[in-house]
Amino acid sequence: MNYRSPISPGLSWYEASLTDRPTYPSADGDIRADIAIIGGGYTGLAAALRLAEQGVDVVLIDAHRFGDGASGRNGGQIGTGQRAWPTELEDDLGLDRSRALFRIAEDAKTELLALPAKHGFDVGYRPGQISAVHKKRWIAGYRNHATAMAERYDYPHIAYLDRPETAAAIGSKRYHAAIRDAGTGHIHPLKLVVGLAGAARKAGAKLYENTPALGIDPAGGRVKITTERGIIHADRCLVATNAHGDAFEAEPVSPRHIMPIRSFIGATAPLPANDDILPGGEAVDDSRFMVRYFRKTPDNRLMFGGREAYSAKTPNDIAGHIRAQIAEIFPALSEADIDYVWGGSVGITLPRLPFVRTIMPGVTSIGGFSGHGVMMATHTGRLWADSVTGRRDDLNLLRDLDIPPFPGGTALRKPLLFLAMTWYAMLDRL
């Protein structure tokens, strides 16, 4: 098979640690199906699997390999709730809608953890997540969040940690406090991609890699998708390109609402067996606007993310930049070898909530999970499939969200984002 140029830079630890990553053919000739899906990440693959399980004739194409975008290269943290805390959403949406969105997220978590057992694949799940406070003035907010989640959202799994408890849990004195979430955890994200694809193929979905969609035509009551070697004819289409919508000129609506941010991760050489970093095995994210996130791999490497970029150009010396960030939290690792460095594009929206919209007759676009896609992208793909077959209507809660376009139009939205992110990064350092 002739692969297209990589969509994301760097060999990830995920790729290096995976013993089997099946390949899929390119589409060749005209194809007819009930449903066509563009994009082979979590959203598209989960939708294809769900539809195929219900006997729907579904075809999925991806311009590259499945999981070469953020789905196979992210930090692996599942999280709880939507990207914004439920208590934050209350101000704009009210308590009832915030609770409904939290319920969807909890359903997403439950279904995500059930999928591997149901379909016989492994995602390397490990329990626990810690959210650490890097500024003293935010301590009260984190403590209050733990209380609110138990009292207003019936979620008793979050515990507040004071400074000594945080230092012991993380293995660093850098943070002032934290909350520990025992109701979630983290996974090997590429294993989830491989598992979803394998299950979808087994269920009867037609899957094709290295097959870019060149155009979408909804005229005549059916959707026609042009590829390099033929046309796909379908009754409906799901566009699940997410952060890579900018490269898909046939669909100009989503890129106005979903902005790609490039995020980079490094993995150190294996640490000594007696190190005191994350003795409980949790994943960590911190309170910076430009979030730093890290966890241990099964072979005892520290996997650390936090280097971001807002242009298509890959930054210089990513390993050096990540090592410097690691050293701020773990000074003993200031000279650590970085064995793997990789990046991927994350799709964000202005309110950090998912974008679900009909963008042309018979065509729906889904994306913009804003760093919370491990469970929410997977679940939203399943919700879309169930809405197509009439099984449940939870997708309407996401359809009804107000996701405004980024300001500045095509020419200025990325420069304006760069200025905004630079400002927040400066505030993080002060």
UniProtKB/TrEMBL annotation:
One of its GO terms (cellular component) is cytoplasm. Residues 34-386 form the FAD dependent oxidoreductase domain. Keywords: Oxidoreductase. Pfam families: DAO (PF01266). The keyword Oxidoreductase applies. The keyword Oxidoreductase applies. GO terms for molecular function: oxidoreductase activity. This is Oxidoreductase. It comes from Notoacmeibacter marinus.
